[in-house]
Amino acid sequence: MPFARRALAALMLLLLAGAGPVAAPGSVQPAGWDAGVRLPEAPDTNPDPHVVEIAIEARVARVQIAAEQSVDAWTYNGGVPGPLIRVRVGDRLVVHFTNHLPAPTTIHWHGIRLPIEMDGVPGVSQPEVKPGESFTYDFTVPDAGLFWYHPHVASAEQVGFGLYGALLVEDPDDHVGVADQLVMVLSDMSIVPAGTLEPADAGGSIGTAFGREGSHVLLNGRERSTMTVRAGAPQRWRIVNTAKSRFFNLDLGGTIFRQIGTDGGLQEYAVDHDTLVLAPGERADVIVVPNGTPARPLTLRSVLFYRGFGTVEGRFPYDDLATIDFAEGPEYAGPAPPEVTRHIEPIDRTGATAVDLQFTLVQAPDQAPEYQISGPLFSAKEKLLRAKVGETQIWEVTNKSSWSHPLHLHGYFFQVLDEKGAPVRPMAWKDTVNIPYDSTLRLIVRFDDRPGSWMFHCHILDHAEGGLMGMVVVGNAPSADHVHH
Ligand code: C2O
Ligand code: CU
After folding, report:
1. How far, in Å, are 113, 268, 326, 349, 415 from residue 345 at the CA level?
2. Can you give the pTM of this predicted structure?
């Protein structure tokens, strides 16, 4: 080929190489080890090192979830999941959001302790972003941890169709000591045999009461991914369950999951798990040390998790998420990662207000089943609790239904006190916690100086839309009682 074209081709190769993944400093993995699972990142257009400024566009796009399966999904920037947003704790994040979907939407920043104006709840914190419209989200990220983003309009439908992404808030001084890190977005998607998305109301009110699980189980948007790792080398996995109903129960062929953190960053001390359960909305920060040989790969799978009547019976017992192949070469022989601990001060219980919440599923004759919070007290359309700025509340949540419900509170972290009367340790900051069927859990929360109407709901999004959704109005009102209209 002529010289100019050859030069151009070489230049393009260089540019491509320059834009490609760069190994983390201190990486002990083979080059390209995570190429099959690495998430695309949104480019930061702001030169200020403490401001991350990105553009996100919601639009329908064809995505490939397996070699022989693609589908027109609802996407952020053309991919499922959306781009990984990477910031440092204390940074300001500016997101120029444009909606090119055929429906109104918003973005909710799950777990971020932000001002109510940025919470993404239509009619409460902002108007819906209509097709063709834009909205700029602009806030500071006060806590390190893995968070995520998703719509808060017709959430069951829009999340089920593919709208979710991870927001990683890094703390450069966290001393975890593992350079090789993966962000894993777990989800599922329902595709009908014709190759299109299954309508979000499939199965009617029974589907809603149960919580619809997608037919295709995805890790970072792929049905079965592969990575090639170095045997015996520690990896840090930051995992979020963005599925609208499915619980993930991870199994790595006997390899231990050493959990060092959860929703709101690192936890009090590490806990080893044989299998790792994540309810919808929850996150886990774990260290794994996969071991094997090129002839003996490992499989990361999700084993069915019993979340109530009918959720396991007659179903295939697991879904494979990824194959972990081992590179040729010597086993890693470096030091084991250090112990990771974090001092977490228990929230002071003195003067805390007691709040009683009951989750029930009621079915009147000839009517669709309906979820209720605290029966008649709460069955009015406005399901409101009140809290004063600075007030501490202890929520006693009793789940009287036959299904487990992961409860999520917007805008604030809480600490779980006990489950079925047994104290819960290690101490951790949570924004989503599973309330198992037929059980009671107590959590404590302090409402700091960010007034506004903050939602709480089951993160099985069908259940939220089926009635398990309320709001706590934080302000300077005189009473912490229910609001009656
Ligand atoms: Cu992640 Cu109101 O939700
Ligand atoms: Cu639920």
Report:
1. 18, 10, 42, 12, 10
2. 0.93
For domain 181-326, which CATH number applies: 3.40.1010.10, 2.60.200.30, 3.40.50.720, 2.60.40.420? 2.60.40.420
| Ligand 1 atom at minimal distance to the Cα of residue 455 | 2
**CA pseudo-torsion sign 303, 307, 274, 242:** positive
Instruction: Report the separation in Å between the CA atom of 362 and the middle of ligand 1, taken as the mean of its atom positions.
Output: 24
Query: 10 Å Cβ neighbour count for 90?
Result: 13
Write the CB contacts of 196 (distance below 8 Å, at least 6 apart in sequence): 71, 72
Closest ligand to residue 361's CA: 2
pLDDT for res 372? 86
* Res 364: pLDDT: 83
- Domain boundaries of the chain, sorted by first residue: 2-170, 181-326, 353-474
Q: For residue 457, which ligand has an atom nearest its CA?
A: 1
224 lines ligand 1 (CB under 6 A): no
Locate 216 and state its tokens: 């295709």
- The predicted pLDDT at position 477 comes to 57
Structure tokens at 299: 């499989």
Up-side HSE of residue 434: CA atoms within 13 Å toward CB? 21
**How many angstroms separate the alpha carbon of residue 299 from the centre of ligand 2?**
29
Residue stretches of the chain with pLDDT short of 50: 1-3, 7, 9-20, 379-380, 479-485
Ligand 2 is an ion; residues with CB less than 5 A from it: 405, 458, 460, 463
DSSP of 39-66: PPBPPP---STTEEEEEEEEEEEEEEEE
Give the contacts of 21 (CB within 8 A, at least 6 positions apart). Answer: 32, 34, 35, 38
For residue 481, give the DSSP letter. S
Number of H helices, E strands in the chain: 5, 30
Residue 101: Cβ within 10 Å count: 22
CATH code, residues 2-170: 2.60.40.420
Tens of pLDDT, residue by residue over 317-342, are: 999 999 999 999 999 999 888 999 99
Strand, coil or helix: 368: coil
pLDDT at residue 365, rounded to an integer: 85
Residue 283 corresponds to which tokens in the numbers above? Answer: 């996150």
Spelled out in words, what is the top-level CATH class assigned to the domain 353-474? mainly beta
